[in-house]
Specification:
The complex is a heterodimer of chains A (312) and B (171). Chain A has 312 residues and is of the alpha+beta class. Chain A has 13 helices and ten strands. In chain A, α2 (20-31) packs antiparallel against α6 and α5 packs parallel to α8. By secondary structure, chain B is mostly helical. The chains are: A alpha+beta (312), B mainly alpha (171).
Chain lengths: 312, 171
Amino acid sequence: MGKTMTKMEQLQTLKNNEGIQYLLNEAYKILGNPILVHDMDYKIIALTENIVTDDPIWNEFAATGTISSDWLEFYKNENFLDAVANAKKIAFLMSDKLKYERILGKLFNRDNIQIGIVSMEGHKPFLDDIAKLFECFCDILNKEIATIEYYRNYGQEYQETLINKLIEGRIEDRESYSAHVESIYMNLKYFLYLALADITLYDPTYAKLPYFLDLFKCTQPAFKYSIYSNYIVIIISSDDEMLNVKKDLIKLNKLFEQNNIYVGISSCFENLFELNKYYVEAVNALNYGLKSNSAQRAFQYCEMNQNSSQSI
Amino acid sequence: MKTEKALDIAMFSLLNNRNFRKITVKDICGEAQISRATFYAHFIDKYNLLEYWLMYLKPEGINKDDCYEQIEKTVNQFIHKHATIIKNLIYDADDQTLDILFNSILSTFGFNAAKYDNGKTNPKYVVLSNFYVGGVFNYFLWQVKNKFPSDVMPMNVYLYEIITKFQEQNF
């Protein structure tokens, strides 16, 4: 008689490139718990098929393709949103008000976007080693998602939209967005600066903005980018509270020089929810620098203040 | 509230070991095991957390009838119970931290004193409160700088006498 495979071994036999739906259905057979994958707007990407349950959240997801604001408010009040944002990979969600206990994982799409994956009891209690098994399944799904171009693009677009929302100060309910904003912090160093690249002198029609956005991303992938109000927004990070333009922007400086691009840089900050303040600083630094007829390409807000006080 | 509680405990733990100036949001998040975005979803920065934290550190409320005596007691208890934390808050503190501390003490002791007159805010007690808290606050600073000397009569006893004189003269 052959040796019986463990649940972990069974999971590891799941093949990639067969699609998310295949993986969810197969994982259900192994773990016994239905699984649902949703994007950052809580819209369903896929869920285990043919599940009949009396769980109201699952049924709402399955019927409407998303989750209502009432349930989101409930998630927030029960501290689930913080639990998810703080989790490295998975978090258990438990409450007397939940019909069934849940386990939630985060999928990282090229360090850009976090996609939620939820499994729940109901059909079967969670196995003792569900945490390890679920982490393993998250890794399998991560690999799958990385092969799908749609989600790669979705991840980038979502992050750019999020940066622009932060610039406009449109995020009032910070708790609901904490997991989203955490995805921007990923792979950034501690101290942050907001830079605005102005391509007006290279292309006054701004048609080349997407081209430069891609070029910057390829040249310096460690930073985060978006296009906002005819500027390329760059979230720069550094280990130092005093930005060293020559050192920290070494890869981008050459592009600025070659393409006649000027850049305004805000003062140092840490809180991305305050991005709107630093956007104004970067605009002011850029405008001040352009008027100063300096040979520099990058103008820092803190230098602008020093120069102003010196001239006074 | 779980997040606030975790941050509260983290702040207490960190302040027992190092100066507030040297504590970063990264340290606080690490200690509380929360993400940076979660921290900033609840607080603007570490100073904002300090304000919140001090609200819970302060002693019990002050009774109307024994206002200044209560202050005298609580100041002494507060200093000795939280000597390390006070030291770490005040030592090498920047203006923003000192400002928060002053206002926290003002709201703890001073605002209650301001309502001393039959529960109504009286401008003369507001002035007195600020004056008193200024004294209390500098007393904190002085104690820290002088490593908490035990052979000195507490400054708030002097302050109590001064305030009583002011009151007698219908300040």
